[in-house]
Design goal:
Chain lengths: 111, 115
């Protein structure tokens, strides 16, 4: 089975940096996704990490440590539009593309 | 290029009724996955369809069934609705021949309310 943990809610200030953590325990692991979901909208893809280390994509970066079962999403220069839920999801190493999601972290950006 | 489209956007049903939700995948995608998302929770995997067959299934009762058509579009059927079935139902499409990390493209979902 798979168990994914991430904080329920976070608050950060506009212009600041925030780090959203995700830990996972899984019987088979290929990689980890991060998705962004604004209220009432569909989740949209942010990143996919397979190898250990940090991958940067504009204001957003994602880090993975396979040995520790740990990932984080780093958001820099926060903007009000970054207020959303951030979903951590695990892709399995075997079988088909059954992606398992965590409960999501609701980020509120305040002025 | 149209993305993933779902219909209807909202639906209200009463307990015991049956419902059918529809999904058209993104152009070039052949795999459709359905997820249930309760308020404040992450999406929960219901099942996945490929080549018109259910390929994988999550921990959902047999009241949840589906179908995939030759044009890759899909339907989710829920029988004998319960109050607890109230949720946002998301359809996600992907390519089976893509790398294992092939990202899912989501539709905007169908918000189902069971009264």
């Amino acid at each position: 089975g798979q168990n994914i943990d991430q904080p329920t809610e976070m608050t950060a200030t506009e212009g600041a940096i925030v780090q959203i953590n995700c830990t996972y325990q899984t019987s088979g692991f290929n990689g980890l996704f991060w998705y962004q979901q604004h209220a009432g909208e569909a989740p949209t893809f942010l990143s996919y990490n397979v190898l250990d280390g940090l991958e940067e994509k504009g204001r957003f970066s994602s880090f993975l440590s396979r040995s520790k079962g740990y990932s984080y999403l780093l958001l820099k220069e926060l903007q009000m539009k970054d207020s959303a839920s951030y979903l951590c999801a695990v892709s399995p190493s075997t079988g088909y593309q059954k992606v398992t999601f965590g409960t999501g972290t609701k980020l509120q950006v305040i002025p | 290029d149209a993305g993933v489209t779902q219909s209807p956007t909202h639906l209200i049903k009463t307990r015991g009724q049956q419902v059918t939700l529809r999904c058209s995948p993104k152009s070039g995608h052949d795999t459709v996955s359905w997820y249930q998302q309760a308020l404040g929770q992450g999406p929960q995997f219901i099942f996945q369809y490929y080549e018109e067959e259910e390929r994988q299934r999550g921990n959902f009762p047999d009241r949840f069934s589906g179908h995939q058509f030759p044009n890759y579009s899909s339907e989710l059927n829920v029988n004998a609705l319960l109050l607890g079935d109230s949720a946002l139902y998301l359809c996600a499409s992907s390519r089976t021949d893509g790398a294992r990390g092939e990202k899912l493209f989501f539709g905007s979902g169908t918000q189902l309310s069971v009264l």
